[in-house]
């Protein structure tokens, strides 16, 4: 699960690895500091987002299991 969908933040290392060409373009244009996060989200906030995301995934898997079970039982 990519947690960038929750807070819009990505680490520099992940950004360079996943979007190397974009990072190079930002460096040549000199605008990397413009996109730097001024204050990152807190540990509690990140934990809550990850817990919610995992809960949603597990809930979806549980519902899929119930649908398959109802289909075969039915």
What topology emerges from the helices and strands here?
Layout: H1 4-7, H2 12-18, H3 20-29, H4 43-73
Helix pairs in contact: 2-3
Low-pLDDT sequence parts = none
What share of residues are in beta strands?
Answer: under 5%
Query: What's the overall geometry?
Result: elongated
Order of helices and strands: HHHH
Can you give the helix content as a percent range?
Answer: over 70%
The major β-sheet equals: none
Annotation field: number of helices: 4
The overall strand count is 0
Radius of gyration: 19 Å
**Mean pLDDT, as a whole number?**
86
The structural class is mainly alpha
Terminal CA distance: 33 Å
Care to describe what's here?
The protein has 74 residues and is mainly alpha-helical. The chain folds into two domains: 9-39, no CATH class; 41-74. 70% of the residues lie in helices and 0% in strands. It contains four helices and no strands. It has helices spanning 4-7, 12-18, 20-29, 43-73. α2 (12-18) crosses α3. The longest helix is centred in the last third of the chain and has 31 residues, at 43-73. It is elongated.
